[in-house]
Every structure is written in structure tokens, then in C-alpha cells.
Amino acid sequence: xxxxxYFIDIHCHLFTAADIPLYQLAKRLHRKAQHPLRxxxxxxxxxxxxxxKFREFIQFFESEPKQNVLRVTGQLKDSLEQLGVEAERxxxxxxxxxxxxxxxxxxxxxxxxxxxxxxxxxxxxxxxPFVGIDPRRLLTTGSMAxxxxxxxxxxxxxATVRKRWKEFLDVNLVxxxxxxxxxxxxxxxxxxxxxxxxxxxxxxxxxxxPQQDLxxxxxxxxxxxxxxxxxxxxxxxxxxxxxELASSHQVAMDFTKPGNWRQVLEFSSQLxxxxxxxxHFGGDIGTKMVVPMRNRGEMEDFEDWVAPKKPRAKGxxxxxxxxxxxxxxxxxxxxxxxxQDKVAAAALMWLLAFDENGFFDQDGASNYKLQxxxxxxxxxxxxxxxxPNYHSYLRAFRQxxxxxxxxxxxxxxPPQWREPDAVRVGGPSPSGQSEVALGxxxxxxxRRRKGRNKQSWQPLPSAAELFQKLTCENPRRFLFE
Length: 481
Fold this sequence. Notes:
This protein is α/β, with parallel strands linked by helices. The chain has helices at residues 22-29, 44-62, 65-83, 108-119, 158-171, 214-230, 249-256, 259-267, 283-290, 315-326, 342-356, 390-401, 403-406, 463-479; strands at 2-12, 85-94, 126-127, 130-132, 197-200, 234-237, 276-279, 294-295, 305-306, 330-333, 374-375, 423-428, 434-439. A six-stranded parallel beta sheet has the order 4-5-6-7-10-11, with helices on both faces. A three-stranded parallel beta sheet has the order 1-2-3. Strands 8-9 form a two-stranded antiparallel ribbon. Strand 12 and strand 13 (434-439) form a beta hairpin.
């Protein structure tokens, strides 16, 4: 058994169909969708063909919160047992969504109440939700009950927004692990149902940091300042595949792009300390954009894909990497990653390898390692159309990172690192196969990157170490250190 102190799923969901206003669903589904909820907008014939694939997904959303808590926690515990992972504490941080961005039916607080009540039925897993908030909820005159309601946003001052935000957090008892006494209070002062963080989802229709209206910008800054002051962990949606309620797909992308958060982090020294998780890490599409793999023709295994000479400075994932390298409290989860896509899986491993060898390092930055910034998240139940249960997804993740030991040395090295006197270091694996790490000497001084003086290709940590970093050490630091 592989033993670790915690196993933490930092990105999952437990909301049901009862938590989504139907008028918002209708608004969303009139467009072509890439989100799993596209099932419900398909013609009847296509929907019938999709029923088998989407059965678990549909049943999850039709179930009551208590039933879903028991289902997902049971699957998680079974998965850890099957994989031989023994954790002293198993934690899930389901993300609550503030779907109501306009109007007459507000379901946020009832959603919070249902999840908090259902969380108490979890056995062997601690459920610590993140509360969702649409900033427009704090910006209208009159009642703040409904985000983006008919009130006048232009009349609200930044001071009023800060006051409302404090009241919202205090009334709903949103307090981080540190404010609740630290990790030693798990099972004591920290119990299932306690809200320990915040979820922000810009594609629902809000701009992260409006630039055209300075008063509105300052209102948003007050929200982030209070989060930084309380050291609350914040997960933000950051991939192009979204549940969009913005006026158009392009507007949703403009609101969601990672560069918006760089503007927040750069605004002040206080905000540079914001505890921020970029949900989905730009997606598997973003990973493949940074590390475009070339196929040898077989398309059967990880070894069939050849890495480029160097990663590309392109796309959302690259922008996120740059912030992870620079800011101490920034993290990214790899939830909903397409581990069944061999190209994406290989690209993810190569991205970590490139980072380990300084390809993403920046002059004047702290240059934190990505292996210390990425976190495990399942995005359950959104994965169910592609994976039948939690175990199949977690197993695919572990199989991917095990390529470092089993096959990663077989990958073709980038030409600038390839030398005839490559050193292969390793020992026997439990299966008797050679566990090989990479140590390729590079004597071509003229090809060295400017400012770097590395003489060898540095190997990644073992699969067991990476697994523990992403499922235990990194999310623990993100939540509280």
C-alpha cells in the first residue's frame, strides 16, 4: 500500500438538476455546446443514441444530494483501495455554482443548504465545499439576493460591495482551514459541510476586472482584496470548454482567459498573494498547444509520440504556467483532463519534463516548479460521459504519470539534448521491467539556452512521488499552509 497523509480531490461537483434554474439552462442550450450538458439540446434521435453513454451522468443530476454524496464518496474510497493508496484523511472540495445571473429565480443559498446538509452523510471522506459567487450579486442596488438583477449596478460604491461581501462570507460561515484552527482540527472544529473556499466562474457572464468603468473595476478589486485578506482559497474556471451564460461565446472567452487574472495579481502586492487555483489548467487542448506532439505513425502507445525541440509560448496553458512560476500562491488543477487521449497524456508529461529542465524559467521570477503547483481534481460528474466511474478516471491519471518510470525514457529526446553518450539510470520495477530515468548529457555549449548552464536532462520524480504531490502535498498547501 502507498501511504500518504491526505488524498484531496480539489475540483468536483455535487449540485443537481434542482440547483440549475431552467430558464438559464434554456438560455444556454440554444447554442451549440461543448459542455456535457449538450446532451439535452440534441435532437431526439441523437439523444436516444447517447442515452447509454450519458446514463450515469443523467442519473447523477436526477438524484438527491445525499444520494450523490454517498455515491461519489463510495466510489472514491473503493478506487483508493483498488489502487493500493492508503490516506489518513480523504477530502473532497465540491465547487458550488452561482448559476443565477439574471433574475427571478435564485437558487444559490438553497443549493448551499442542500449540499451542507448532505455532506454530513459522508463516511470516511470529509466534504469541504467552496461557495460559488457571481460578483454581480454584490453590485446591484437594493437586495443582493439575485446576481445581475434589475437593480442599478452603476450606483453601488466599492465600499458597499466590500461590506456586502464581508456579510455574505460571515453569514454563510465561509472560513478557510487556517481560520478554523489548521489541519489538526480536521474531524474536530473542521467537519464535513464547512465552507472553506470560493468558486468564481467568469463564463457565466462577468468580467474578472472591468477596464472600461473604473468604479466597477474597483468594486471587483474589493472582492479580491477581501479574499486575499482572509487567505481564502479561490478556484477559478480557466479553460475554453465552459458552461456559458455570457452574451456570446467570444464574450465568455474574453471573460475567462487567464490574462485577466494576471492583471489582478499584478495590481498590488496584496493581490499578488491571492490564493488562486486555475481550474482545468487551460484544458488538455491547451497542454497540446504548448507541447505539440508528432506521431511516428503507429498511434498505439505513448512511445509513438515525439516531443518538439522546445515548448511553444502559446495558449492559455502557457499563460497559466507563467503565473504558476511567478506567484507563490497560484496553483492549477488538472480536472477533466482527457487522459484517454494519448497525445494529451504524453504532452502533459513532456510539459512537466520541460519545466524540470528550465524551459519555462523567467528572469527575475521565483521559478516555482510545476510539479509543486499542479493538483488532482476529478471534475466529477462531468467526466462520466467518458469514464464510467471515479475509479476509471483516477486509474487513468495514475497510469499517465507512471509513464515517467515505465516508458518516459523511451520518448525521443529533443534534438538539442540528444547525445550519443546518454546516461540511463534506474533499477528494476516491481514487474521486473527496467525503471529508467533520464539523464542525457549535453555538451553542445552553443545550443544552451541563454542564462542556463545545465549539463544534463533532469529526470522527473518517481510516479509515486508525483502522485503524492498532486493528490496530497500541493492541494494541502493551496487550502492552507
